[in-house]
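Aggregate trends can hide what the representation actually does to any particular protein. For completeness, the protein is quoted in full, as a sequence line and a line of structure tokens.
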Amino acid sequence: RSAVYAPMLCMLFVACRMYVLATTGGAGEPPLWVKASMVVATMGMTFQFLVILLLPATAEQASRHGRLSELSGEPVDVHPMLWAHKYTSNGARSLVYATQVFSQVCIYGGVLGVVLGVATFPPGKTKISAAVTCTVGLSILYFATFLVVWLLRTQLELRMPDRSLRPWKRAALAASDAVRKAPMFAVIFLAARMRALNLDPPLGMPPPWLQGCFYLVTAGLCAEAIFAAAAGYVDQEDEPRVSGGAPMRMHALSHFCEIC
């Protein structure tokens, strides 16, 4: 679970560093508070991994509500569900809850700090490249989607009789499947940018048509996530699937965006 965020965090950090080097002619450093944001986000990942290790040690492996692996949510959930477990003691429950909250504050606070650092760093010799812009955009989409998944799952866990949130949960899960490609796209964007710098230092840029492809891929992934979420929302849980109708159209649009 905790490994889901690591690739996108790495690409966001690399994008920030590349932009600072490009705009300062290879001699600059990110501001201290941006570096601190990177450290904080990394520390949050460490504590998130600690939550994964603490949960089996502090919660009963099986209860009347289900097994530990079932109560923790699906493998796609970055943050495990904690409320339904029966813990060995109140102290263990408080420790797991506090560690989870602290890790989330660190991760999302650190990501926000790095994004703001890229947006506010004073431009020097070059503006923000398409590769960096698209990587930051994909990072925002990626982390926001998984955060919404956790928030909706937590609300459903605390308000089980409330079925009004279930369509939103299906929408968020469908969108999370779509955005899983984002880290690999970011790798391709930044690799192309590094190749351009290698061929034409210190300010080399990919050709305009390639930069246009960066924006097209980013826009396509955002559209795919939106259409996938719409398909998940209108889809009917616990009912037979039928051909045609709104779910089929939303799935078709989502696949079309994926092809683009």
Summary: Residues 196 and 206 are 5 Å apart (CA to CA). The beta strands are 62-63, 66-67. The longest helix spans residues 90-120.
